[in-house]
Write a structure and sequence with these properties.
By secondary structure, this protein is of the alpha/beta class. It has a single domain, classed as Rossmann fold. The protein is about 40% helix and about 25% strand. The protein contains 5 helices and 5 strands; from the N terminus they run αβαβαβααββ. The chain has a 5-stranded mixed β-sheet with strand order 2-1-3-5-4, sandwiched between helices. Strand 4 and strand 5 form a beta hairpin. Helix 3 packs across helix 4. The chain is globular, with a radius of gyration of 17 Å.
């Protein structure tokens, strides 16, 4: 959140995408940004835990589309996805309802492609105002700070 505050104070448009969050967690983020003076250049796109899996799945794509809009208007943008682990869980739920066969660790085989395609939309691009950037900061949940558990397809237990 401190990165958002610092960038917002520099005039960068900041987008916070909350995926599957509780109301109290979002209220904390909002209060912190207001108290630190970073709320004036920040847009919050929130899909609450109680919302449908589809809304939670689509929230990061809506956030990135908004980031591209601001970039195309000549602004530099910071977008924070909080968190892509929850996004993967909601995508898994939708995929199971659609009878898509799960892969390793019960996630659909294309989840990493879906998230990579989302993050690849960030970066620098030449606009009529010069070079503008979307900087994406994905947040991922880990269990006991074990990063290898987040990327299940890269570890099969025999390494």
């Amino acid at each position: 959140m401190q990165i958002i505050v610092n960038q917002a104070k520099e005039g960068v448009i900041c987008i916070y995408v909350g995926i599957g969050k509780e109301t109290s967690a979002i209220k904390f983020v909002e209060d912190y940004l207001k108290a630190e003076g970073g709320f004036q250049n920040t847009v919050m796109i929130i899909a609450f835990a109680k919302d449908s899996p589809t809304l939670n799945y689509l929230a990061p794509f809506a956030g990135m589309t908004l980031a591209e809009f601001f970039r195309d208007k000549g602004k530099n943008v910071l977008i924070v996805f909080d968190d892509l682990t929850s996004h993967a869980k909601f995508y898994r739920e939708i995929s199971l309802l659609a009878k898509k066969l799960p892969g390793r660790s019960c996630y659909p085989g294309d989840i990493f492609h879906v998230q990579a395609a989302l993050l690849e939309r960030a970066g620098n691009i030449e606009t009529r105002w010069g070079e503008r950037a979307i900087t994406a900061l994905p947040v991922g949940e880990t269990l006991e700070n074990d990063l290898s558990g987040y990327i299940q397809t890269n570890f099969d237990g025999n390494d």
